[in-house]
Amino acid sequence: MKSLASRTATAMVAAVIIIATTADRAHASCSFPSTSHLSTPSNIKLTLIKSNSLCADRSGKEYSYGGFDSQTTLDQCFNSCAVDKALFLSRMVGVDWNCGTGACDCLYEAFTLNNNDCKGFDRCHNVYMGSGQVEGSTAVNDIGCYKKVDNGNGFDRMEQSFLRGRE
Question: Under a CB-based contact definition with an 8 Å cutoff, are residues 122 and 84 in contact?
């Protein structure tokens, strides 16, 4: 007959194996679309830079972000970042989207967001110093690093439209 300590240790090992296997299955089921387009203006899109990674700048610095929860698709995430926060679109460099939890982080260059700007997000971290375009990444499971690409003058039109609506 096994001692109580031995049975407890065996149960703990089994629990760790089950948890690890479940996490592996969840990770394996994540899918990262290669692009996402805004409906208006249509010339702004997100392009997948690297799956299972957080975006970083050329120096490896992470970007400040404002985040939204429960964004079940990349398109929903992008729309929240670009339309709900149109005032910041020209300073947005990309998105980190968690395909498992739906967490969506709209990435901005350093000094874009202040504490008042953070109020419209579910979470906000405005002290990271990333700047310029997304050019690097850091490995993190279930997160896709997406770079914002503008093939024209989309930022100006969207920001002007947004600002006209605030007058």
Answer: no
Q: Answer yes or no: is pLDDT of 137 > 90.
A: yes
Cα of first residue to Cα of last residue in the chain, in angstroms, is 78
81-94 pLDDT, tens digit per residue, is 887 777 888 889 99
Q: What is the pTM of this model?
A: 0.73
Count of residues in the chain: 167
Residue-by-residue DSSP string for the chain = ---HHHHHHHHHHHHHHHHHHHHHHHHHH----SEEE-SSSTTEEEEEEESSEEEE-TTSPPPEEEEES---SHHHHHHIIIIITGGGGGGEEEEEEETTT--EEEEE-TTS--TTGGGGSSEEE------SS--EEEE-TTEEEEEEEESSSHHHHHHHHHHHHH-
Say which amino acid occupies 83.
V
